[in-house]
Write a structure and sequence with these properties.
By secondary structure, the chain is mainly α. The protein folds into 2 domains: 121 residues; 112 residues, no CATH class. The strands form 2 sheets. It has a two-stranded antiparallel ribbon. Helix 2 packs parallel to helix 5 and helix 6 crosses helix 9. The longest helix has 34 residues. The chain is elongated. It starts with a helix and ends with a helix. Keywords: Membrane, Transmembrane, Transmembrane helix.
Length: 242
């Protein structure tokens, strides 16, 4: 919700930037002024902050990959909003015939750079999804029997050993796999620590084949629970109908 409000604020800032730009042009003044540039900067701050909150929200409540288009739109909405917040302004600047080439180049460059920054800030290079979290949770449960991992806010991995040497000198947090994804600052390529995985497999005398068997058992257990929940819900509906 806050992300949407910030994006709306960015669009409003863009509208005012266009108005101030046209006002300066129509009055014969230079459009390269503090108002226009200041509103561009405000536009960038608002759209960037909105994208940050949107990506944070997606990590807490990830979309499903079942519908590829909706998954892409929800994951990369920050990029879309970057274009919405800057492209109309860029078009107004570049197509206006009343301003000189120098002013057009300066304002166009500022708006273009702002668009690139906002686009990169809004892009999700490692998008979260229900399927991804489920797969990673299954792996942790197959290795340890529980959905509990350790991580640091600035780390690039989550761990099944609290004393893993890669995090032993850092402030450690623990929670589910989903908690770990939501709690880290750097979400790019955030996944299970290979050192922890290999250590656990070695301790338990587990091969890749036996690990895959455990994974299938975990998945079967989850599917069974879902089937039982569905069956219970259906039975309750029949009772209510009766």
């Amino acid at each position: 919700m806050f992300a949407v409000l910030l994006w709306l604020g960015a669009i409003v800032a863009q509208v005012f930037a266009i108005r101030m730009f046209l006002k300066a042009v129509n009055s014969g003044e230079s459009p390269v002024n503090a108002w226009v540039i200041g509103l561009m900067v405000l536009d960038l701050i608002l759209v960037f902050a909105g994208s940050y909150l949107w990506k944070k929200s997606n990590r807490l409540d990830p979309p499903s990959e079942k519908n590829k288009f909706l998954f892409y739109m929800q994951s990369q909405l920050g990029v879309v909003m970057a274009f919405v917040a800057f492209l109309p302004l860029i078009i107004f600047i570049l197509t206006n015939k009343k301003i000189d080439g120098k002013s057009k180049a300066i304002l166009g460059s500022i708006a273009g750079v702002a668009l690139v920054i906002a686009g990169i800030g809004g892009a999700e290079f490692n998008p979260a999804s229900v399927e991804k979290y489920t797969e990673e949770t299954n792996m942790v449960e197959a290795l340890t029997g529980t959905n509990n991992v350790y991580y640091t806010k600035g780390g690039g991995k989550y761990h099944i050993y609290e004393d893993c040497y890669t995090i032993k000198n850092s402030e450690r947090l623990n929670g589910t796999v989903a908690d770990a994804h939501a709690g880290v600052a750097n979400h790019s390529d955030f996944d299970l620590c290979g050192i922890c995985k290999n250590k656990k497999m070695k301790e338990d005398g587990m091969s890749e084949e036996s690990l895959n068997e455990k994974l299938e058992q975990v998945k079967a257990g989850l599917n069974k629970e879902k089937s039982e929940e569905t069956q219970t819900a259906t039975e309750e509906e029949h009772k209510d109908a009766a």
